[in-house]
Amino acid sequence: MPAERERREKRVVCIFGTRPEAIKMAPVVRALSGRPGLDVRVLLTAQHRELLDQVMEQFGLTADADLGLMQPGQPLEELTSRALLRLHAELGRWDPDLVLVHGDTTTTLAGALAAFYRRIPVGHVEAGLRSFRLDAPFPEEANRLLTDHLSSLHFAPTARARENLLREGIAPEGILVTGNTAIDALLWTVEHPAADEIAAAGKLSDGWQGRLVLAETHRRESWDGAIEEVARAVADSAQAHPDVLVLYSVHPNPIVQEAVRRGTAGRQRVRLIEPQPYGVWAQLMRRAHVIVTDSGGIQEEAPSLHTPVVLARQVSERPEGVEAGTVHLAGNDYPGIRRVLDRLLADPEAWRRSAEASNPFGDGRAAERIAQGVEWKLLGTTERPADFRTGS
Predict the structure, then answer these.
(1) Which residues lie closer than 8 Å to 191 by C-beta, 6 or more apart?
(2) Which helix (H) or strand (E) holds 228?
(3) 9: how many CB neighbours lie within 10 A of its CB?
(4) What are residue 272's DSSP bridge partners?
(5) Packing angle of the helix pair 334-346, 348-356 (nearest 10 deg)
(6) What is the Cα–Cα distance from 49 to 71, expressed in whole angstroms?
(7) Prediction pTM value
(8) How many CA atoms lie within 13 A of 65 on its CB side?
(9) Cis link prior to 96 (omega < 30° from 0)?
(10) Could you tell me which of 188, 130, 136 has the C-alpha nearest to residue 158?
């Protein structure tokens, strides 16, 4: 097997399985593909199905293997065990020189662990994020910690993420600060809009001339009633501001759907919509006055479009946005959401300061730095990429 590796190109297997992972890994796959000396493969778990397929089509990606692991209502332990077994088998068949995983999902952890068991080096894209609470977000914080300690190459999006890794004893020579690939994906999508995406976004807002608030909440740790509280707060805030229309993107999980419906029932100017293709969602984010979300990626993306974010969480593993003023940590209860959202809707100066703050998460060149880092590590044909610095 080692002799075979010496004879062929260095094989890099990119593993992902959810919509957010696909969005953030698409620029990486594109940046790596076609580089001399690299054989790049895409391995999907399809932890999410329809939402994942939308993004694969959006970015023109094709999977080399698709495990199709999604099952309705599957518990974490079942998904994790099935993903680990299937990924371990696939990696044995492909014999890669490097496995790339992204972020903090069950697919991320299972992919890193399967590679570790096969003694294959792991590169972690979006390494070093920490909330410092194992239960929030759940189970993502634990997935991040475990994946980082299974990896030998760490693509940290910010200097803060690098510091987190160093404090945990991660070797500094394996850490590259790259910026976040979410910015790469968003800027490419906004700069290459399709006519049908623009039309679809316009149809959802139905010619609304006032301010648009986007909302999206789905996190597992909020299933105990918090999602309903957040939805009710967003709906009531819209009632208090007659020029505001809310488009509420509702995750397909039945628990989330029911909670959002209860929280928004009977309210005017609140429209529940299905999760949109990424290109349409990017157009909506660009049009929005404020976004209310518990998503990780939106915290990074929206500031590049000068759209303030109200974060419906108790803690954030992306404190750079909170410190920069682009993200407003509001908690996931009714009073916190109302207080922060009403302030941004009622105070033009507070909104302006947030909208004009610099995005600390990236400059649109993260994937290029990652691809150069892979070449540096596997091929030795390029220099170690310079670290991303905010404002550079």
Answers:
(1) none
(2) helix 226-240
(3) 15
(4) 248
(5) 90
(6) 9
(7) 0.84
(8) 16
(9) no
(10) 130
Given a contact cutoff of 8 angstroms between Cβ atoms, the answer to whether 151 and 112 are in contact is yes
* Per-residue confidence (pLDDT) for residue 185, from 0 to 100: 94
58-74 confidence digits (pLDDT tens): 889 999 999 988 888 78
Distance, CA of 303 to CA of 381 (rounded, Å): 35
Angle between helices 195-205 and 278-287 (to 10 degrees): 60
Scan for tokens 């968003």, then name that residue: 186
Q: Which amino acid is it at 88?
A: H
Task: Give CA angle at 390 (384, 392), nearest 5°.
Answer: 65
109-139 pLDDT per residue, tens: 999 999 999 999 999 999 999 999 998 889 9
DSSP 383: P
Instruction: Using alpha carbons, select from 217, 209, 202 the residue that is nearest to residue 280.
Output: 202
pLDDT of residue 310: 98
Q: Round to whole Å and give the CA distance between 330 and 76.
A: 28
Catalytic residues: 104, 126, 140, 218, 220, 251
- Band (7; pLDDT cuts 50, 70, 90): very low
Among residues 164, 132, 135, 131, the alpha carbon closest in space to that of 148 is found at 164
Comparing CA positions, the residue from 296, 284, 277 lying closest to residue 213 is 284
Are 293 and 256 in contact, with CB atoms under 8 Å apart?
no
Q: Which of 32, 26, 33 is nearest to 59 (CA)?
A: 26
By the 8 A CB rule, do 29 and 61 touch? Answer: yes
Residues β-bridged to residue 144: none
pLDDT for the residue 112: 98
Would you say 366 and 372 are in contact if contact means Cβ atoms under 8 Å apart?
A: no
Alpha carbons 193 and 25: distance in angstroms, whole number: 19
Per-residue pLDDT reduced to its tens digit, 173-199 = 999 999 999 999 999 999 988 899 999
**Separation of CA 226 from chain center:** 21
Burial of 192 (0-12, 13-18, 19+ CB in 10 A): exposed
Of all residues in the chain, the percent with pLDDT exceeding 90 is 79
